[in-house]
Design brief:
- Helices cover 41% and strands 20% of the residues.
- The protein is of the alpha/beta class.
- It has a single domain (5-121), classed as Rossmann fold, CATH 3.40.50.2300.
- A 5-stranded parallel beta sheet has the order 2-1-3-4-5, sandwiched between helices.
- Helix 2 (36-45) runs parallel beside helix 3 (65-75).
- The longest helix has 13 residues, at 13-25.
């Protein structure tokens, strides 16, 4: 994981800042993408290298969280994926990538860290 980052995709700046702070305090360096467009660009260029994806489902212009995760898994089939959503949690079973986790907003920061750590730990 050295020199790689967790890609955070969230279109609400205050929510993104809160999540980024939480993740970084837990030892997960973050690359923040405020839209599906920017997340897709980061995935396509491979810069910075991404070791996990945390994405909202509705994330502004460009791809939605379901599409972003499918593109990410095309590049890395074992990439840990955690979805966060206020209204799309019920669609996880049909739209989510295999072996991913859905967290319903609002959530406790500890729940988010547990989910990320659980999936990232399976790659070690």
């Amino acid at each position: 994981m050295a020199d790689s980052l967790l890609l955070l995709v969230e279109d609400e700046p205050l929510i993104a800042l809160s999540i980024q702070d939480c993740l970084e305090e837990a030892g997960h360096p973050v690359c923040y993408a405020p839209s599906g467009e920017e997340a897709t660009q980061a995935l396509e260029t491979g810069e910075p290298p991404i070791y996990a994806l945390l994405t909202d489902i509705r994330c502004g212009p460009g791809a939605d969280g379901w599409e972003i995760s499918r593109k990410a898994r095309e590049r890395d089939p074992s990439l840990p994926v955690v979805y966060i959503s206020g209204d799309s949690a019920g669609d996880h079973a049909t739209h989510g990538v295999p072996d991913s986790i859905m967290i319903q907003k609002p959530f406790a920061p500890a729940r988010l860290i547990e989910a990320v750590d659980a999936l990232v730990g399976t790659r070690d």
